[in-house]
Amino acid sequence: MLNHLLRQVLLLFVCGGIYFSVHGQKYLHKKVLHTVLWKISGQGLTNPSFLFGVDHVQAYEPFVKKYPQLDSVMAFCETLIVENIPTSGGEEWIITCYIFTQTVV
Amino acid sequence: MLKPDQYQQLVKYINFKSGNNKDVLNNLVKMRPQLLVMAIPMLSGAQLASETSEVQMMDQGLLQAAAAKGMQKMGLEDAHERSLAVLNGLTDKEAVRQVLQEIKGQSSKQTKSNKRRKTKNNAQNGKKETGRDQYDALQIHYYFNRSIKGNDYGGVQFRNQLWLGKIPHLLEQHCSLICVGLAHLKTKEGLIQQLRQLGYSVETIPMTATTD
Question: What is the top-level taxon of the source organism (chain A) (predicted)?
Fold first, then answer.
């Protein structure tokens, strides 16, 4: 009886081991990074630039108060680049760096 | 594309969101389903902003802060490019499904507003959090080894590629803060991994919350 129970426990461990060796990789990918801010450098850049992952429906003011690093980075940068810039009223979306787009695209 | 009952559902939703604004209704019901996918969250966003007029949303706040600091402001795409991205990323059928899902999701949110408040309180007790709470706590999962699943909803992949054609030139010209939706960073096709592939060094900047 005890032998049978031990065999069952052993079998459970073996099955568990096989499962995690096969599926464990996907859990490793779920690494939590406590940031939404990144520094871009290299490739001969004289000054670094920064990348900020935005949640479009998050309120700005409380977030900046909570994470003042964002404000420090803004003070360091010359240009703010967003996905697209709204005109007055925010209903119609256009690009403001029109000349830039024409030269690059 | 929409069945009569779905059309009625859409009309009801637009009327509710726009405060029975006939112009908004007339413009939206004429749209291709793919463009509706893009317009409907904007309608929700506009309502959210009007309900909470004192609260400044992230993009608006960033633009105003940039103006106050005398920073130059630029956009990565124009309206034409944005609509191209949506049209390329979605079929009509998928777009209709997304629109109906959005309407269903929104109406269930309204009826379950109390439940949502409860969830927010639960978040403080270590229970299940909403996406917004997770962002606020910076508990974000990045999947740099994985590709975007399924259809390129909203044209994230398409837009990343479009932007990657412009970003290197911008980085050479200016010391910039590039602010894009978090969905544009997370995966193998995201800007972080793509910029690394172009030879840039992209490093995390740890963010710590102030204690008060």
Answer: Bacteria
